[in-house]
Amino acid sequence: MMNAYTLKAPAKINLLLEIIGDRPDGFHELVMVLQSISLADVVELQYLGGDRIQLHCNHPQVPCDQTNLAHRAARLMQKQFPGKGGVAITIDKKIPIGAGLAGGSADAAAVLVGLDLMWNLGLTQTELQSYAAQLGSDIPFCISGGTALALGRGEELTPLPDLDQLYAVLAKYRSLSVATPWAYQTYRQQFSAAYARDSIALERRRREGHSVALLGAITHRDPLQVPQYLYNDLEKVVLPQYPQVQHLRDQLQALGVLGSMMSGSGPTVFGLTETRSQAEQIALQLQTALPDPDLEILVTKFCSSGIQLL
Ligand code: C5P
Questions:
Q1: 227-248: average pLDDT
Q2: Residue 69 within any structural domain of the chain
Q3: pLDDT of 121 higher than 80
Q4: Ligand 1 in contact with 181 (CB < 6 A)?
Q5: In angstroms, rounded to a whole number, what is the distance separating the alpha carbons of residues 85 and 175?
C-alpha cells in the first residue's frame, strides 16, 4: 500500500443553472451545465494509524475541524470501511472560498478518490459518486469533471462533449461571499409560484427550458456559440443584493468578452474568451477599470478532467 497521494482538485463554473421546482428533501430540482476549469486546489493525503483525521489548510479562513467538507468526506469513508486507518489531509488552497466555484466540494471529492486509492478499495465511479452525493450536490461532478449536464439536486450527471478550447476570466471581491442556502431560500420566496408542480411539468421544463440552446451548441461542438446561451436563475436574487457584483459583470461584458455570467450562487462572475491572450488582455483592462486591491482576477482555461492524481 502506498501511504501518500497528491491530487489535483479543479474548480467548476456553471454555464447554466436553472431552478425548475422544489423537492421533497427541501432542495431544488435543477438543470445545470457544469464546467471544470484549470484553477485547482492541491490535496495531499498521508496515511495515519488508528482512526485519526487531521486537516491542514494554508488559507486562514478555511475551518480545519469536522465541519470542513474534506474532513466529512474522510469520516464518511471511515464509516463505510471501518478499520482501514486514519488520514492527514493537507489542502493547498488556490480556489477562492465562498465563491460559487465549488472549492470545498472539489477538496471533498479529492479525499474520496484518494482514500479509495490509499485503502485499495477499487470503488467504481458510480459508487464514489453516490458517497459524494451524501456530502453535497456538486461533489459527484467534481469527481468526474469536464463538461456535464446535471439534473435532480445536481447529482444526476450526463457527460457532454469537451469544451476545453475556451478561456474564462474570473472576477471576485475577496471580502464578499454568498451563503448558498440564503440564495436558494430567497429565490424560493420570490419565484416559487412559477415552479413545476408535478413530474410531467418538471420533465417539460427539462426538455423545453433554457438548457436546450446551450446543449445544442455543446453537442454540435460549436464552442463559440456557448457564451450566448449562459444562464443562471440565482443572478435574479444575488445581483440586486450585491450591486458591485452586477457592476463587475457589466464591466466584463463592456470589455468585449463573448459572454459573462455569475457562477453558482456567486459572487464570482466570469467572462468567456476564445484565446488566452484575449483573456489576459481583458483581465488587465478590468484591473485598470476597477483598481481595487479587494478585487481578485484570475485567467483560467476550461479543462476536461475532474480529480487527478499528481
Ligand atoms: O448540497 P449543497 O451543500 O451544495 O447545498 C447547499 C445549499 O444549497 C442547500 O442547503 C440548499 O439550501 C441549497 N440547494 C438547493 N437545491 C439544490 C442544491 C442546493 O436548494 N439542488
A1: 98
A2: yes
A3: yes
A4: yes
A5: 38
- For residue 306, tell me if it sits in a domain: no
Q: Is 6 in the pocket of ligand 1 (CB under 6 A)?
A: no
- pLDDT at residue 44, rounded to an integer: 98
Instruction: Summarize the confidence of residues 221-250 as an average pLDDT.
Output: 97
* pTM higher than 0.90: yes
Residues 45, 14 share a domain: yes
Q: Is 136 in the pocket of ligand 1 (CB under 6 A)?
A: yes
Ligand 1 lined by 180 (C-beta under 6 Å): yes
Judgement on whether residues 290 and 190 belong to the same structural domain of the protein: yes
Residue 270 grid cell: 466570469
Cα–Cα dist 157/306, whole Å? 13
Does 104 share its domain with 206? no
**pLDDT bracket for residue 231 (50, 70, 90):** very high
Q: Helix (H, G, I), strand (E, B), or coil: what is residue 111?
A: helix
Does one domain contain both 137 and 192?
Answer: no
Three-state DSSP state, 309: strand
**Atom 10 in ligand 1: residue holding the nearest Cα:** 181
Among 41, 116, 138, 233, the active-site one is: 138
* CATH code (residue 68): 3.30.230.10
Question: Does residue 185 fall inside a structural domain?
Answer: yes
Q: Respond yes or no: is residue 79 known to be catalytic.
A: no
Final residue belonging to a domain, choices 161, 186, 210: 161
Are residues 144 and 123 part of one domain?
yes
308 in any annotated domain: no
Q: Respond yes or no: is residue 93 known to be catalytic.
A: no
Per-residue pLDDT, 164:
76
pLDDT of 1 strictly over 70: no
Asked if 92 and 206 sit in the same domain, the reply is: no
Q: Give me 295's grid cell.
A: 478585487
The domain in which residue 64 lies consists of 4-161
28 lines ligand 1 (CB under 6 A): yes
- Which of the listed residues 17, 67, 137, 263 should we mutate to test ligand 1's pocket, taking the one with most ligand atoms within 8 A of CB? 137
SS3 state at 69: helix
Ligand 1 mutation target, pool 17, 20, 25, 27, most atoms within 8 A of CB: 27
> Region 120-129: what's the mean pLDDT?
97
Residues 6+ apart with CB under 8 A from 259: 226, 227, 228, 229, 230, 271, 272
Tell me how long the chain is: 310
Instruction: Tell me: pLDDT of 71 over 90.
Output: yes
